Amino acid sequence: MSSVTCTISKDVLDDVKKCRLDDPNANMLAYIAKIDTDKKAVVKDAQFNNIAFEDLAEELPENEPRYVVLSYRQTHKDGRVSYPLVFIYYLPTTAKPVHRMLYASTQPLFSKETRLSDPYLLIESEDLSQEWLEGHLNKFSS
Questions:
Q1: Beta partners for 14?
Q2: Cβ atoms of residues 117 and 45 within 8 Å
Q3: Cβ(27)–Cβ(73) under 8 Å?
Q4: CA of 8: how far to CAs of 13, 37, 135, in Å?
Q5: How far is CA 35 from its chain centroid?
Q6: Is 89 within 8 Å of 121 (Cβ atoms)?
Q7: Is the CB of residue 53 less than 8 Å from the CB of residue 130?
Q8: Averages of pLDDT over each 10 residues, the chain, 142 residues
Q9: pLDDT single digits (tens) 21-41
Q10: What is the DSSP string of the chain?
Q11: In sequence order, what are the residues at sequence separation of 6 or more whose Cβ sits closer than 8 angstroms to the Cβ of residue 28?
């Protein structure tokens, strides 16, 4: 039996539903959610259209976890283009233990409510790159 630690605001759920690239010239849309520790609720932190991986990595705080939802333009080896919606669970080792536990206990609910399963764990923001993401995306493809 699990207990629910935090709620997820309706605004976050609505925003995540809209997280799809709609600009054919854009490569990535990023939505960052955080936990408001006073309200014990997942809320919007930031949203970026057509952001580069390096810039997104700089937006992630050094010492606080985040939930990141990406709509990413992926070009496959055979030339096909797809737009996967990806959930990245950013959990830096330098985060306070209480924050690590709060995000860890809320992550399954966030996955369920947003219908984004199998989050990719990111420990160091500097690791966030196209190669890192495509390595995860291609892990199970043939």
A1: none
A2: no
A3: yes
A4: 7, 12, 29
A5: 13
A6: yes
A7: yes
A8: 75 89 75 95 94 95 96 86 90 95 94 91 95 84 51
A9: 666 667 889 999 999 999 999
A10: ------EE-HHHHHHHHT-----TT--EEEEEEEEETTTTEEEEEEEEES--HHHHHHHS-SSS-EEEEEEE-EE-TTS-EE--EEEEEE--TTS-HHHHHHHHHHHHHHHHHHT--SPEEES-GGG-SHHHHHHHHTTT--
A11: 21, 50, 51, 52, 53, 56, 70, 71, 72, 73
Q: How many residues are there in the chain?
A: 142
Q: How many CB atoms lie within 10 A of CB 107?
A: 20
Predicted confidence at residue 21, as pLDDT, reads 64
Vertex 88 angle, CA 109 and 5, to 5°: 25
Taking CA atoms, 64 is separated from 7, 19, 60, 105, in Å, by 18, 23, 8, 15
Looking at residue 23, its pLDDT comes to: 64
